[in-house]
Each structure stands twice: as C-alpha cells, then as structure tokens.
Specification:
By secondary structure, this protein is an all-alpha fold. Helix content is 51%, strand content 0%.
Amino acid sequence: MYPTDLTDAQWKSIENLIPKAKRKRKYELQNIWNALNYVVKTGCQWRMLPTDFPKWQIVYYYFRKWTDE
C-alpha cells in the first residue's frame, strides 16, 4: 500500500463514474487508478512503476483511454 492509494470509501465514490466492462478484467480498476495516482504524485516514468502495480502498459492504456473520453 502506498500513500497515494485510494481508500475503499474513496474508490466507492468514483467507481460508478467509470463505464462498466463487457468482459471480465484481468486487473482491478482500483489498482490501475492507484498506479495512475502514483505516477502523478511521484512523477515517475511509466516504465518505472513498482512491480506490485499492473504492468505499465496496462496502466498507460487506461490513462490514454480515460483522458481521450
């Protein structure tokens, strides 16, 4: 757990803003969101995300998807 991680209560308040998937996801969106928070707060490079987050490519995919929407 990192200081940038959302609490479960914080996640519940924004979870419904994200469109539902038509298929089962391999990674939980909360973990992806936490990884995005980590990148924004620390300024680390995508490829330097700690390994306990989903792969940087997955996190970056969701970042691009959500910013384009």
